[in-house]
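Internal tracking record. Fields below are filled automatically when a chain is submitted to the structure queue. Please do not edit lines marked as system-generated. If the sequence contains nonstandard residues, flag them in the REMARKS field before resubmitting.
Queue: standard
Priority: normal
Entity type: single polypeptide chain
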Amino acid sequence: MTLTVMCQGLVAQTISGKVTDRSNGETLPGVNIVATDGRGTVTDLNGAYELPLKAGSHEITFSFIGYEKVTRHVTLIENQQLVLSIKMGIESRTMDVVVVSGSRYEKNISQEMVTIDVVQNYIIENTAAPDLKAAVSRVPGVTILDGQASIRGGSGYSYGVGSRVALVVDDIPLLTGDLQDIQWSAIPMETVQQLEVVKGASSSLYGSGAINGVINVQTGYASDKPETEFRIYQGVYTNPRVDEARWWDKSNAPVMMGAFFSHRQRWKNFDLVVGAHGSSELTYLQAGQRQAFRLNFKTRIKSEKVHGLSYGLNANGQYQQSGRFVLWQNNKEGAYKPLSGTSSEDKYTFVNVDPWVQFVHDKAGIHTLRTRYFRVERRNVDWEDPSVSNVWFMDYRAQKEFKYSFVLNAGLQYQHIWSMSSLYDEFAVTDNPAIFGQVEKSFWKRLTLLFGARSEWNVVRGLGTQASGPIFRAGANVKAAEKTNIRASFGQSFRFASIGEKYINASLGPISIFPNPDLRPERGWSAELGVKQGFRISKWNAMADVALFWMEMKDMIEYPIGLYDVDGEMKLGFKPLNVSRARVAGIELGLSGDGSIGPVPVRLYVGYTFNYPADLEDDTTQLNVNVYMQNLFTSISNPDSLSSQSILKYRIANVFKADLEFDLWKFTLGFSSEYNSFMDRIDAEFESLLPGISDYRELNDRGIWRIDARVYYRIDKRHSVGFVGRNLTNEFFSLRPGIMEAPRSFTIQYKLSI
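SYSTEM-GENERATED OUTPUT FOLLOWS
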């Protein structure tokens, strides 16, 4: 897309060329190019530009979010056609991070109206993160309990179904059709370019499942210069601090190994990205052995006949064999062993195929159509008892920027799910049509206002329709000073119960999971007030962030354990129920920075989150805001004085995370730490009826610190080798009751970049 501002009359002189990223040679579309006489243009999808100018001397400025400004002085004579190509360098990863999650188009992170955290690639690679879960767990305020994500205490634990955090990969949701859960291991981490986490209700843009936030994964495209990367790692778990918990021989410790491969290349108008991953892990959990292999590709073709038209096909497939560990035998010698009847070994295949097309026009704006077919098949070790989930998803979106800094973003979505399983009786078919839109307007280059709305329907074939009703979001961002931005937001949210929550009827040894087809949708809203402050110390750039947040939720779906009447017989198990009206409020502090302190490059990423998760159903006095606020402050100063019935189950109130990395000569040293406070409330029946849980909680009623460290050596520009230690103090601890976290481990990783 090329927009040119010209004076009246003909201009015979021009400058033209291409703008690229200095580090990797990738072309940069959307670069602003302005001459001193006010004439200007922007680069098109291929990074090319053309700017007519009068004869004479000119100063040309090239500017782009996240990159250092470039200024060139040129002198043009009559009828001269000057070629001027520019390479732009990144200014600061901290000060000028560009995100797409908050408004569904590119924007500087300081201009967003909600909190968005970006996990930098160096953290993913240098910590030898084996999958998306390991990367996301580095984000402050995010807690992952046995595979289920919770942001700022907005979610508890629901035994593997019904995620309240939406996973979006390349702009399309990627939750399984029947369980609506996240399959962390199936995400192509080998081609990930940016990982963003949106905190707070996001249903107006992303629909059901985004009631608590969004994890947005953006995979990369090829650049002008071919790039190949290969990473291989191998690790070993050490003996736990409690020696009787070790089920393996000292000479035969559990191990992990894996490899990542990616290649990116461009041929004229055709981009290709391919990736592969293989891994094998004999984990510290006796039933947790896992093997997986993944292959994926991504393409983009820029039409040579129709300017602004591009299209492509992306695909990802993975085969996985893994053990499922639900509950331990006890909290000591049986901590890493499964309770009889609760473990299993499953075989999975994951496939998604994503055709897409995009058209960019000066007057018509940006129009994008993305589709995805996503299939998940689960079978037992003998390839029996199949569970098959199919999702077809369509997303059409139009974006148009009008005069006076007015942006419209609107679209249609449609999701069709058909699934079958031996865990529920009937072939399940659901449809989810949706319509959404938002407008954004900037005033005086300092104030930006946003308003959005969405309606979505959940149609279960033969059983009726549920509707979200119109839900709304609103936000504001004020640039109070050069590096100071104040933001405020409000957003409503909802989540339809998944097929699994409504219909699964299964047995896990002595414990059963019961269905509930009458579940109502979860509903809620969240609000936030935040300040983002940038500053610079010598050559070190930093961004500090403070956010106050407030969430209200109704008809939350939880899985209380108890005795339930099944055909006149009382049976022990879990059953999903709409049980809670909840309120969660708190504060989040963050600091990130990069640059040099003296001669040493330093990167820092740190955050602390406090939340008070109130159960307004069991303690109705907290419906009064004054009582709630008194309890919130009491939970800080004297938490033991509060009744356990006042707080929600399976929440962690205090979470601290930090990562520090710096370079010394050819070495890179990194340290990370994490603190999780004690989980104050769980199901009373869970604690009293299942072995070892009550004993563990009596002996371990304090928070847990975990410390990791890493060291890398750059052999040359292409080769590096690293050593990563996790849980260095070898803490023996549990976050989700009934499953123990990993003991100390060491991993060695080799990286080759061509």
